[in-house]
Amino acid sequence: QTFVVDSRQEQQEIGQNQRNLDMQVRRDVKKLHLTVKNTNEIGDLKKAVSLQLSGLVKAMDEFKRKEEEREQRLQGRYEDLIDKVEIMEQETRKVKAHMEEERLRARTDPLTGLPNRAAYDEHIAQEYERWSRYRTSFSVVVCDLDFFKKVNDTYGHLAGDKVLRLVAKVITKNIRVTDFVGRYGGEEFVIILPSTSVQEAEQAMDKLRLSLEKSPFNFHGKPVGITMSFGVTEIKEGDSLDDVFSRADNALYQAKEDGRNL
């Protein structure tokens, strides 16, 4: 803003200098014309003309000097502006990086490093939008560790935290890079499988269930038996996001009722 204001003032100064030069030249030319008209002696005429021309040259030199000074000031302000813009760009990049870092932190579960519930809400909304537009099906899985309270009660919360971190790693290792897994809360996780039917999702989750069951969990050298139950559903016509999650959650509840590790 300062640069623009100063540039406007410079333009006004240029205009005034040009007007002053024009007036000076006109005055000197008028004087020269009168001298030529009124002087009869050639010697006097030469002196008068030389004097008037010197005045014109002096006026032109003064105008040139002012223009050079103005250009130097303008160049200095321009370079200063470039430096300030570069500093602003650096600060902007820092702020953007900080904001992105804070955004990721706000959407990441600090214990497992997985996306949290807020990240799930964002991701499922995008998947639902894609399905609404292109009818690209997807499946949702709600899964929950079996008897996790018993792990905490028997081995302590540090053991429970370790189990959650290891479970997060096993799940991540056993799903596709295009799939989404997040910690929904407590010992409950949620998985989104794009372009996947419910039958395909069930097969994938059965492989994951077996991997979890066979994983060598231990705490202080003592084995800790871990299993997980799954509720799987596929998006259907007329579903809302709540409908999809509720159906998967109900399927999980049924798996718990039927004996767990299902």
Give a structural overview.
This protein is an alpha+beta fold and 262 residues long. The protein contains seven helices and six strands; from the N terminus they run H-H-H-E-H-H-E-E-H-E-E-E-H. It has helices at residues 2-38, 42-106, 117-134, 148-155, 157-173, 198-214, 241-257; strands at 138-145, 180-185, 188-194, 218-219, 222-223, 228-234. It has a four-stranded antiparallel beta sheet, with helices on both faces. Strands 4-5 form a two-stranded antiparallel ribbon. Helix 1 packs antiparallel against helix 2 (42-106) and helix 4 (148-155) crosses helix 5 (157-173). The longest helix has 65 residues, at 42-106. The protein starts with a helix and ends in a 5-residue tail after the last helix.
Q: Work out the radius of gyration.
A: 41 Å
Helix content: 55-70%
Write down the overall geometry: rod-shaped
Fraction of residues in β-strands? 5-15%
Please mark out the parts with pLDDT under 50 across 5 or more consecutive residues, or reply none.
none
Give the termini distance in whole angstroms.
67 Å
Q: Got a strand count?
A: 6
Structural class: alpha+beta
Number of helices, where a helix is a run of at least 4 consecutive DSSP H or I residues: 7
Strand count, sense and barrel status of the largest sheet are: 4 strands, antiparallel
Order of helical and strand elements: HHHEHHEEHEEEH
Overall mean pLDDT stands at 87
Q: Taking strands numbered 1, 2, ... along the chain, how are they ordered across the largest sheet? A: 2-3-1-6
